[in-house]
C-alpha cells in the first residue's frame, strides 16, 4: 500500500539527509559481525572468565561455542514502580532460554531514575543525562562480547531510549525489548490532578494530598498516565521491538510471564545461530523512525520524544529534526485520548484496543510504512495482533475491527482530531515544540506580557505570594541541558492550571522541558538554541509581549526591532545546579551536550570508517564475516 505523500516526502528527506551517516552506521554494523558465536572471538582466558560462575550444563554450552548466548540487560530497581517487577524476570528468561538449548547471561544492569520521585527535586537535574548514562551502561554490559542476542528490560522515560541507544551501538546483535506492564488502575489521573490543584490553592492538607497520590500510585507497574514511559511502549510496539501487544499486560500475571518467556525464546530464534538472524540495527531504519513519530502523534505522546527519538535515530545514523515531526503532525490524526490527553488511563486504552490497534489504523490509513523489519521478520502488519494465553503459551489473535471504547480509541476514519499531538513553533525566540493534544483549542494562542523566572522555585514563590493572578507568559530561563541538565518543570503544572482555571490566559516558554504527563497549559518547550548557547530567550525582559501561537506555529517577542537589537543577554548564577546531588559528576555532560533538536545527546553521528577493518581479530570459529550485501537478507536504505 502506498503511504500518504507527506509521509513519503518526510521519509525520503530523512533518507537523503542521513545517507552518509546511515551508510557509515551499516558499515560499522557489518564490521562487528562474526561467523559463528560472538564469544568465538574471545581468547580462552576471556571466555573462561565469562562462564566461570555458570552451572555445569550452561558452562558446557558456552564452552562448546555452538549455541547462542543471550544477554540480559536490565534496569531493575525498587525506585520505579514500573521496573520493580523486573526483579524476577532473569530467572524466567534463563529457564526459557535453557529450554531451547541456549544460555542466557545477566550481562549488566543499567541505572534508572524515577521522574516521579525526583520531579521538582534537585535529582531531576540528572534525569535527562541519565539517558545517555544508561546507553553507556548498556555498552558496558554488552562489551563483554559474549552475546548473540540481547533482551532489554526497561520501560520508563529515559530508560527505553537509553537502552535502545546503547543497543544500536551493538546493532549487529538482535535485540528484543521486554516490558513489565502497567499498574492496575487506582484513583483516576484527573482526581489526582484535582487534589494537587486544591493543595496548591491551600484547600487540601498535606495528608489529603499524600493520600490522593498514594491511591494513584498504589502498586507495582508503570504509572497509568500516557507520559513518556507509556509513550515508549507505543514506540516499541510500532518499531516492532516488542512481541505484539506486550506493552500493557499487567505485571505478575500468567500472560505477562508467558510473554517474557516467549520473548526469551524468540531472541534465540533471531540470533545468527537461530536461523532467522535479525540484527537490531536493521530494524531501526528511516521508515521505522517515521512510523514511531506517526504513532507518537496519533496517541498524543510525550514531548520528551522530540529529543529521545531524535537521539535514538542518531544512534542508528539517522538524522531527524523538528520539521519532520511538525510535517507529520499535520497529516497524522489523533486516535487516542489517554490522560493527559483525556480522562482514560493506559488500562482503558489497552481494553479499547491498545497500541496494536493504533498500528493497524495507521497502516490502513497509509500513514505508516508496512515494509519494515521487525523482530518477527519483514512487515509491520504481523504486529497488529493481540496476545492471549493458550495453556501456558502465548497465542496471538486478530484485533477486533472496532474500538472497544470510542471515547478512548478511534479508527482513523473518525479521529478525535485531524492532526497530531506535537507541533513546532518558531520565531524570534528560537525553535520550540508544543504538545497541543492536551490543550483546549481556546488556549492554542496566548499573547500576554512576559514574567521571567530563573528557577522553578522563583516561579512558585511568586505564585504563592499571589503575584501571578493575571494574563502572562511565564518565561522560565536557564533550564536548558547546558545550564542545569534540562529538568522537567512539571511541578509548575498545578499552579499554572489553577491560574488557567481562574480565567487567566497563561502559557509557559522555556528552554527546559515538561513531563510527558504535562497537559492542559500551553507550553513552548525545548526552546533552541538554549540561553547558554546564545539563545534569544535570554533577551526577554519582564513586560515584553510574548505571542505563542500553536495554530500558526509561531513563537515571538513582540518587541520593536531596535529595542530588541539593543538588548544584552541575561545572566544567572547557576552554581547551585552544578554542585550537590551528584550534579558535579555531570559537568562534562553539561559541556558536551548537543542541542535539544539534535536529541540533547552525548555521542557523535556515525562517521565513515576508513576501511571496514574488523573491530577484532577473528579466530577459527570467530572468523570475521565480510560486510557485503548478499550476507544480509535486508534491503539497505534506498
Ligand atoms: O515524562 C514523563 O512522563 C514524566 O517524567 C513522568 O515519568 C513523571 O514521573 C511525572 O512527573 C509523573 O507524573 P506526576 O508527577 O503527575 O505524578
Ligand atoms: S512512569 Fe514516571 S513516575 Fe511512574 S515509575 Fe516511570 S518514571 Fe516513575
TrEMBL record:
Record bears the keyword Iron: yes
Keywords: 4Fe-4S, Carbohydrate metabolism, Gluconate utilization, Iron, Iron-sulfur, Lyase, Metal-binding
Reactions this protein catalyses: 6-phospho-D-gluconate = 2-dehydro-3-deoxy-6-phospho-D-gluconate + H2O
Cofactor list: [4Fe-4S] cluster
Top EC class for this record: lyase
SUPFAM superfamilies the record matches: IlvD/EDD N-terminal domain-like (SSF143975), LeuD/IlvD-like (SSF52016)
Pfam families assigned: ILV_EDD_C (PF24877), ILVD_EDD_N (PF00920)
Cofactor note as given: Binds 1 [4Fe-4S] cluster.
Dihydroxy-acid/6-phosphogluconate dehydratase C-terminal domain segment(s): 408-600
Entry EC no(s): 4.2.1.12
Molecular function GO terms recorded: phosphogluconate dehydratase activity
Domain named Dihydroxy-acid/6-phosphogluconate dehydratase N-terminal: residues: 67-381
InterPro entries, alphabetized: 6-phosphgluc_deHydtase (IPR004786), Dihydro-acid_dehy_C (IPR042096), DiOHA_6PGluconate_deHydtase_CS (IPR020558), ILV_EDD_C (IPR056740), ILV_EDD_N (IPR000581), IlvD/EDD_N (IPR037237)
Binding site for [4Fe-4S] cluster: 156, 223
HAMAP family: Edd
Family, as annotated: Belongs to the IlvD/Edd family.
General function of this protein: Catalyzes the dehydration of 6-phospho-D-gluconate to 2-dehydro-3-deoxy-6-phospho-D-gluconate.
Protein name in UniProt: Phosphogluconate dehydratase
